[in-house]
Predict the structure.
Amino acid sequence: MPDRRYSAEEVDAAVAALADPERFAHAQEIVTHAAPGLQHVLNEALAEGGWFGGAHEAQISRVALDEDPEERLRAIRTLVAEETRLGMLVGVAVGLELAHELMRSHETHETNETHETGDER
């Protein structure tokens, strides 16, 4: 099964649907259940992408040692915001792949049931 491609309109509609508290609550339940495994996958993806390598560590050290308290505070806020955005974007990519995997698994399960029972659904 080829991976499904989504149009910008489909993505916009899906993001808007997340405003429904019931739909978002179910997503939160799934993520809470899968959090330990997802954290590992997210960490691996960030490490493989080189997001938190030597350059990142050097930037943290530079910021931490800044003698100007105002500049240090501004730089820390900037680093936290950048890390948050990056984690969110990589997390969304992981979430999309998780959804695709769940769809593939569901389709495989339904196909196996149809073959075992001879029941066309």
The longest helix spans residues 69-117. The chain has four helices and no strands. The helical segments are 8-17, 21-48, 54-64, 69-117.
